[in-house]
Amino acid sequence: MPPVEIRPDIYWIGVNDRTTDLFEGMWPVAQEGVSYNAYLICDEKTTLVDLTKEFKTDEFLEQIHQVSDISQLDYVIVNHMEPDHSGILRTLRRIAPQITILGSAKTVPLLESFYGITDGIRVVEDGETLSLGRHTVQFVHTPFVHWPETMVTYETTEQILFACDAFGGYGALRGAIFDDECTDPDFYEREALRYYANIVAVFSRPVLQAIAKLADVPISVIAPSHGLIWRDKPEHIVELYRKWAGYATGPAEPGITMLYGSMYGNTEEMMNAVAQGVSQEGVPVSIFDVTRTHSSYILPSLWTQQGVLVGAPTYEGSLFPPMAQMLQMAAQKHIRNRKVAWFGSHGWSGGALRHLKRLLEPMKWDLTDSYEFAGGPTQEDLLTAQQFGARFARLIKSG
After folding, report:
1. I want to staple 176 with a disulfide (CB 3.0 to 4.6 A). Which of 32, 181, 189, 324 is the partner?
2. Distance of CA 191 to the CA centre of its chain
3. Are residues 30 and 148 in the same domain?
4. DSSP H or E run through 152
5. 227 and 294 housed in the same domain
6. Do residues 166 and 18 share a domain?
7. Do 63 and 207 fall into the same domain?
8. Which 8-state DSSP code applies to residue 230?
9. What is the Cα 267 distance to its own chain's centre?
10. 3-state secondary structure of 396
11. How does DSSP classify residue 197?
């Protein structure tokens, strides 16, 4: 994609990535892709806001070249040091050694440890402004959204918030970079939620603090580091992030995430009966086979829904390992205070429920019900499973 002018003399110069399979080496984006958004302010002082991953260097430099002379750049604003934001920094310094790098104080040691850069750095304070000529930028520190050095940059003339990882999402840009030109907004909202649950959820309190800090700042455009640029309704993505951050400590939605894993089909058969009972009560249910679905796609449902049904057998005296791994990931992402019920089969011995209780304790999940059966389910077991699902659904409906 060629550079796109967002406002006079301010350009999107990002790149799309449709070849990386795993974002951060662990979150699938092979189908969805991801964009690395950077921005160029052409003024008396030509300024880059953020960069891109190293393997996109040639494409990124060509983007800049179409708008400005790369060798004459004055400033690079490093809002965030993660390498998908800063990966070409060493190469850029070789082309334009006079560049001054602007970042928070905690950026300085990271520049040395990641890239061996120790000179040409200027620390900017929280709230500090810098005139570039016709445009003025202000630096707002937003620590732990989602690294300790992170900040956002606000362009005061056009009221553009260069938001870094805040308000971003997965999904390569499909020609259109603005929310009002996008033909599939549901895709980008869904991928923004997945990105939030995968990357940002642990830092929900700092997210809310950052939103509060910026509450009185007039914002016409939100330009994040990944995903759509929000110029028509920038408040929409802010409200989505506010809602998602609220799930960290407040009530989630009255829906159910059904997690199941089955070795020989017995627990899966019970799962279908449990799901039938849930559906009869009219409660939304999302069903995931933990052996075949990456946790990236499960975490958004767990993050947003209050109820969790766990269907997993006993395996060598413990909970079925893929289920245990999924729950451990939920714990790592600080998904707290859910209501949960478990069902599963066992062969020559039980033990899954005992293991499950140990996993749930640090997450403060409330185990409300359980049902265990030996071998394959009987017709009586399947009828009980329907009642089990309906009972749990009524509990979720009641709040």
Report:
1. 181
2. 8
3. yes
4. strand 151-155
5. no
6. yes
7. yes
8. B
9. 31
10. helix
11. I
Q: How far is CA 350 from CA 141, 207, 262, 314, in A?
A: 52, 42, 15, 6
Here the CATH number for the domain that contains residue 161 is: 3.60.15.10
103 within some domain: yes
Q: Is residue 356 part of a domain?
A: yes
- Residues 6 or more apart whose Cβ sits within 8 Å of residue 296: 26, 27, 28, 194, 198
| CATH number where 293 lies | 3.40.50.360
DSSP sequence for 67-82: TS-GGG--EEE-S--S
Together in a domain, 79 and 54 = yes
Whole-model pTM: value is 0.95
Structural domain including 334 reads 254-393
Q: How many helices (H) and strands (E) does the chain have?
A: 12, 23
Q: Are residues 258 and 242 in the same domain?
A: no
Final residue of a structural domain among 215, 246, 277: 246
- Distance in angstroms (rounded) separating the CA atoms of residues 256 and 263: 23
DSSP 151: E
Indicate left, alpha or beta for 164 from its phi (over 0: left) and psi (-120 to 50: alpha): left
Q: How does pLDDT run along the chain (399 residues), one tens digit per residue?
A: 899 999 999 999 999 999 999 999 999 999 999 999 999 999 999 999 999 999 889 999 999 999 999 999 999 999 999 999 999 999 999 999 999 999 999 999 999 999 999 999 999 999 999 999 999 999 999 999 989 999 999 999 999 999 999 999 999 999 999 999 999 999 999 999 999 999 999 999 999 999 999 999 999 999 999 999 999 999 999 999 999 999 999 899 999 999 999 999 999 999 999 999 999 999 999 999 999 999 999 999 999 999 999 999 999 999 999 999 999 999 999 999 999 999 999 888 889 999 999 999 999 999 999 999 999 999 999 999 999 999 999 999 998
Sign of CA dihedral 156, 160, 162, 163: positive
* Residue 399 belongs to a domain: no
Q: Is residue 398 part of a domain?
A: no
Answer for the pair 61, 146: CB distance below 8 angstroms, yes or no: no
Per-residue pLDDT, 349? 83
Give the angle 7-61-165 at the CA atoms, nearest 5°.
60
